[in-house]
Amino acid sequence: MAIMPAKAKIDRTDQSSDRRNQILAIAARLFASHGYAATTVRDIADEAGILSGSLYHHFSSKEAIFQEILRSFMTGLLEQIEEIAAEGRGPRETLDGLIRTAFRVMEEQSDAVGLYQNESTILQSQVGFEFLSEGSARIEHFWREQIEAGQAQGVFRDSFDSAIVYRFVRDAVWSTVRWYRPNGRYTAETLTQNFLDLFHSGVLAEES
Amino acid sequence: MAIMPAKAKIDRTDQSSDRRNQILAIAARLFASHGYAATTVRDIADEAGILSGSLYHHFSSKEAIFQEILRSFMTGLLEQIEEIAAEGRGPRETLDGLIRTAFRVMEEQSDAVGLYQNESTILQSQVGFEFLSEGSARIEHFWREQIEAGQAQGVFRDSFDSAIVYRFVRDAVWSTVRWYRPNGRYTAETLTQNFLDLFHSGVLAEES
Amino acid sequence: MAIMPAKAKIDRTDQSSDRRNQILAIAARLFASHGYAATTVRDIADEAGILSGSLYHHFSSKEAIFQEILRSFMTGLLEQIEEIAAEGRGPRETLDGLIRTAFRVMEEQSDAVGLYQNESTILQSQVGFEFLSEGSARIEHFWREQIEAGQAQGVFRDSFDSAIVYRFVRDAVWSTVRWYRPNGRYTAETLTQNFLDLFHSGVLAEES
Amino acid sequence: MAIMPAKAKIDRTDQSSDRRNQILAIAARLFASHGYAATTVRDIADEAGILSGSLYHHFSSKEAIFQEILRSFMTGLLEQIEEIAAEGRGPRETLDGLIRTAFRVMEEQSDAVGLYQNESTILQSQVGFEFLSEGSARIEHFWREQIEAGQAQGVFRDSFDSAIVYRFVRDAVWSTVRWYRPNGRYTAETLTQNFLDLFHSGVLAEES
DNA sequence: CATGAATGAGTTTTCATTCAT
DNA sequence: CATGAATGAAAACTCATTCAT
């Protein structure tokens, strides 16, 4: 089962020079913290220690930077999911794996995740960002297959709708990026544990 | 137990004229769909059928419009929660009530909710928007009291952290605004049912 | 000798209602303290307790208010000078009288004087404000006649140019409006005494 | 005796490029002739041959231009006065020197002087323009020291107040900028001569 | 690669003025 | 007389982008 389509590595100017990546990281952080529209190319250039005009030696436009950040995030995410799919384990183990992965990605790439969380509504139908809907549709499809397989096998209760539950889970997990602070009160592992616990069993105590 | 502080509503121009409210509604919709920064005062004025400068007869700035939308949303939300608190029911019933209310508010004020979801990260530490953190802190506090009371009474399992669970729930519920479409495939009631089911019991089938 | 031309009382809407005069006084104060351009009609209306649009029931434009203030100031000033001229005293007594009068006017109509001091450069060649140059030319003419008469009579030294001295005196006197504070350290009488002393004898001690 | 404080010139963008100075000169002229508020950034840009937005490449705001003009004027003026103070001559010679210098500065920097004359009232208590009051207080202090020293030494008559006389002199001298025209009827030297004559001996002839 | 100067189209905001009620 | 809503023109300022050096 292929989550990702045939590899189509986009490399406009694939001089993955340090400079480029450094700028991408700076931009991701600023976009995530102030919003894409509210971040100016000068903000990015300032932090990179160059003049705003000089950014155009590395990227063709502000939007190109934005796209590249999200595209590489989405590509990486799909690869991770692909790996889990490749393991071919049962529905419960697979979903647990997806959830663990999501929390890990949220921690490791918090800027891209935050950016996606804040701008996705607006991006959904934007030209040039179709890869986002495509990627997220592919992920949703895989998730629903797993949920429905689990329900068919009696591993999961069948009183809920797979699409709805998927979205609740997805949003709850990714939204943590808004309040999770590395080196804060909680570790990503604690979040994962708590989430899986809630996900598996809900809040109610056994009513034996 | 008081969720809201003493009423102190002193608006500089508190003429809740029809025109004002009409403009607020237009602005809320535009801010929610394109983002605050990407919405121009001219967009708002155009939809209101006036010139952009004329907006300043009603509001002192673009940000003032933004603030007023969020402030009245937060005020209304706190009132709703206050009502539930006033009923003084048990933890499970109270939380169920809060969740039902949230879905209802999400449906009725989707613009304000969407706006809050998309811009909250950026607003968190913005001057003039402190009422958002204050309100949300008050809500979180009430939620956690209920969760912990339920755990103490044995109604809820005590294997999870009240703060973490609250945030998962909050984010999952409010995030629905991003994909829920009135008159779409799902009703708000369906969402509520599915959510409560998941919230109460998780996904796993009884392992008897 | 007539300082003023035939009476041409300007009364566009000569309802010298209290309201009008009240507004003129408010406007004069604001124009004097913040400058004409930096004072908005709304500032004036606010202080008058009405809406800015309502000002237009009393005056045809912002500039009309400005003109009326300066015109009535100039008219009054010319009348005062006329009176002194009518006394027909000698050059020294006449100039002393003019100086005394100027300090008195400066004290009594500080707003108009201040306004004139700050905006005169710009107004000099403005259409609609020709009465200012006309009035001030008339005053200068009278002054120079007196100075030159005094020099001819041997009352004043004749080592200086009447036009230059007139301007030094005029500017020194009127400029006091910028720093003189009623009820402050100095009285207008003190200023007058000091000025006359300096004017008459300069700073140097007798070199006997 | 130090008139100026320790040099602390730290400009954010201290590239005294030709372009900057050129723009400053244009702005000074326009501000002086039409007033600060009545001069638009477009007026300045037009004369500089660029678009109004391009001004912001050189200066952060219209007010910043204003400040820079006045600040460099005040700095230069204080330096000149410092030089005179350094000569350490007697009160009469020192004051004569200050007056000569003032007329020279008035001629050489008529725009800045005119600007200061027209806008000082409004600027007096404006944030960011404190250096004006500070500078002028320092100058006043030096003048009064000289006047009082002269009175103590019997060089000057002691029938007048040093503060009042200083202000008369200052205003009479600087106000000439409003009517003095280079290449006009009078030279700056003529003004200086007339002023010193009046300043030293007043208008009255010897009453032998 | 980077600078520094500029463009041009747009933004929010201001404000004198008008006018139906 | 006054209000309240609006106009319309212009203001200051922003910012992505270009380009000669």
Which terms would index this structure?
DNA-binding; homotetramer; Tetracycline Repressor, domain 2; repressor (chains A, B, C, D); 8 helices; transcription cis-regulatory region binding (chains A, B, C, D); 64% helix; 208 residues; mainly alpha
Fold and architecture overview:
The structure is a homotetramer of 208-residue chains. The first copy, chain A, is built from eight helices and no strands. With 208 residues, chain A is mostly helical. Chain A has a domain of 140 residues: Orthogonal Bundle (Tetracycline Repressor, domain 2), CATH 1.10.357. In chain A, helix 3 packs antiparallel against helix 4 and helix 6 crosses helix 7. The first copy, chain A, is elongated. About 4% of the residues of chain A have low confidence. At the A-B interface, helix 1, helix 5, helix 7 and helix 8 of A face helix 1, helix 5, helix 7 and helix 8 of B. Chain B binds a DNA duplex (21 and 21 nucleotides) through loops.
Overall mean pLDDT of chain A stands at 91
Oligomer: homotetramer
Task: Provide the gyration radius of chain A in Å.
Answer: 19 Å
Identify low-pLDDT runs of chain A: 6-14
Determine the N-to-C terminus distance of chain A.
42 Å
Named CATH topology of one domain in chain A: Tetracycline Repressor, domain 2
> How many helix segments of chain A?
8
Classified by CATH, the class of one domain in chain A is Mainly Alpha
Percent of residues in helices of chain A comes to: 55-70%
CATH architecture of one domain in chain A: Orthogonal Bundle
Class by SSE composition of chain A: mainly alpha
Strand percent estimate of chain A:
under 5%
Task: Tell me the total number of β-strands of chain A.
Answer: 0
Keywords (chains A, B, C, D): DNA-binding, Repressor, Transcription, Transcription regulation
Protein name (chains A, B, C, D): AcrR family transcriptional regulator
Pfam families (chains A, B, C, D): TetR_C_24 (PF17932), TetR_N (PF00440)
InterPro entries (chains A, B, C, D): Homeodomain-like_sf, HTH-type_TetR-like_transc_reg, HTH_TetR, KstR2_TetR_C, Tet_transcr_reg_TetR-rel_C_sf
